[in-house]
Amino acid sequence: MLTELRNHVPATVITMQSSFEELPLISSYDVVLAAASLHWTEPTHRWSRVAALLEPGGVFASFGVQLCLLDEALDEAVRAARSPYLAEDDVPSPDGTPSSSPMQWPGTELARSDLFDDARQSTIERRTTMSASDYVGHLSPISAYLQLPGPVRERVFRQIRGVLPERLAVAGDVTLHLARRS
Questions:
Q1: What is the pLDDT at residue 13?
Q2: How far is CA 112 from CA 17, 44, 119, 132, 182, in A?
Q3: Domain locations in the chain?
Q4: Mind listing the pLDDT tens digit for each residue in 158-167?
């Protein structure tokens, strides 16, 4: 992904490969972006590290996408196929925010932090179709599946793939959170 990014941005854009926790705090930036990755970071130092990477007034942006099958009967068939192995495959909110809340995580933590101002959330609605193989591929990095032993995970994916038609309709809404460093 980093190679692809470097192919599309000017050479003046600084890119670096590192885990979040090991990223050197030698520079600060106008923008820090996280794409569906914050739940993997160390919670006790997450926001202080983001703030340390930002210039005062700099913007933090985070986005994530959760795919949902639009056909309720198909969604139920997928649930039944995975149920012997997994009760749920949702990505739980790290701070326990219920899915019915108007502000979702990480916006909830940003809004409570004194390191950031003007925390806001936007949703970009997306409706599309995808192949069954692409849908199962989307499931593969989800924590609930990653925690299963490899052979079990492959069995679950085969079972899910077995109930899917070749093409399926999905909602892939993008949830964007923005906040400005205080």
A1: 84
A2: 30, 14, 9, 40, 12
A3: 2-181
A4: 999 999 999 9
